[in-house]
Design a protein that fits this description.
By secondary structure, the chain is an alpha/beta fold. The protein contains eleven helices and 13 strands. The strands form four sheets. Strands 1-7-6-4-5 form a five-stranded mixed β-sheet, with helices on both faces. Bound molecules: oxa(dethia)-CoA.
Length: 330
């Protein structure tokens, strides 16, 4: 019997805009303060893509180019491009199509995945399945969000949280005992409107009214989302450990979505994972939505070792949540 074909992460790339929006600058914009933001969220600063001519596809393209350069391969070798985002350049064409054009991925098809903060986790499992099918040899999976394009910088409940950024991975097949081993994903639309951008879609197409109502900005019921995120991320992470006969001690790295440091630590505590095994960079970048998890993988690359047990976990709008078990393979 031939060994099982798995998807292995063989390169990681990233892009962060240069502009740093500090808590001190936010204090000049809304009624908030550095102490509140740091104790309630863990965030010190976030990056903002200031150039009005540049959007999410620009950031995703830089990620793709870094990956191609790292691997020394040409865009024409890519089979598929999956971009997780809730801030696409356009409703259509997809961000993936724009990236395909920029990197000359002449043999690739692609599409966007809309699962908010779970976007990267959902896109990664999709990419892994394409590799496991045996039909694809090189799949790019990128999480990219220009959150500043949908954040209301007069709303202190949301503007302190989000930042812009992108990162992603290249997936390639392997028959070694590494790669993406398992995933669990959930969607529950019952409370979808509690974390939502109401304007600009087919229900509330752009009009003078939607602009006056500020419907093109995201809104969230923070407390409800907080509670649900803490419960759901822990539940699904514990479930994936059990299903793969792993204990908390077996986890080398836990990679949670970076929405709030209190959610991250509560989840790690419920899993029984030591905090020094948890990737946390929220203080530098805030919540970059689909970007947070691959940005952690990028930052921790020098510490990751072949064979490490890595658990990714996310929670976001939809609601959507999920966990992925990876045996690190580079
Ligand atoms: O990534 C997708 C998923 N998203 C999340 O997971 C986010 C989940 N939610 C959260 O992270 C938190 O709910 C927030 C960070 C958004 C808010 O923190 P909180 O501890 O839940 O605060 P709260 O909304 O309960 O507000 C507490 C107080 C309120 O004042 P009163 O009513 O107690 O007088 C707010 O008006 O803090 C006030 N407040 C602020 N004060 C200073 C809210 N925002 C701010 C602010 N600065 N920026």
């Amino acid at each position: 019997m031939s060994a099982k074909l798995r998807a292995n992460i063989t390169a990681v790339g990233h892009f962060l805009p240069d502009y740093v929006l500090t808590n001190a600058e936010l204090e000049t914009m809304v009624d908030t303060n550095d102490e509140w933001i740091q104790t309630r969220t863990g965030i010190k600063e976030r990056r903002i893509l200031k150039d009005p001519d540049k959007a999410t596809s620009f950031m995703a393209t830089q990620v793709a180019k870094e990956i191609l350069e790292t691997k020394g391969i040409d865009g024409s070798e890519i089979d598929a491009i999956i971009i997780a985002t809730v801030t696409p350049d356009y409703l259509f064409p997809s961000t993936a199509a724009l990236v395909q054009r920029e990197i000359n991925a002449t043999n690739a098809y692609g599409y966007d995945v809309s699962a908010a903060c779970s976007g990267f986790v959902f896109a990664l499992s999709t990419g892994a399945s394409l590799i496991e099918s045996g039909r694809h040899k090189k799949v790019l999976v990128i999480g990219a969000d220009k959150m500043s394009s949908i954040v209301d910088y007069t709303d202190r409940a949301t503007c302190i949280i989000f930042g812009d950024g992108a990162a992603g991975v290249l997936l390639e097949p392997t028959t070694d005992d590494v790669g993406i081993i398992d995933f669990i994903q959930r969607t529950d639309g019952v409370d979808g409107e509690l974390l939502c951008q109401k304007g600009g879609g087919s229900k509330n197409p752009a009009s003078i009214q939607t602009v006056q109502n500020k419907d093109h900005f995201l809104r969230q019921e923070g407390r409800v989302v907080f509670k649900k995120a803490t419960e759901s991320m822990a539940d699904v992470s514990i479930e994936i450990l059990k299903r793969n006969n792993l204990t908390n001690e077996d986890v080398d790295w836990f990679v949670p979505h970076q929405a709030n440091n209190r959610i991250i630590t509560a989840t790690a505590n419920r899993m029984g994972v030591d905090i020094d095994k948890v990737m946390i960079n929220i203080e530098k970048y805030g919540n970059t939505t689909a970007g947070t998890i691959p940005l952690c993988l990028y930052d921790w690359q020098p510490k990751l070792k072949k064979g490490d047990n890595v658990i990714l976990a996310s929670f976001g709008g939809g609601f959507t949540w999920g966990a992925i078990y990876i045996k690190w393979g580079i």
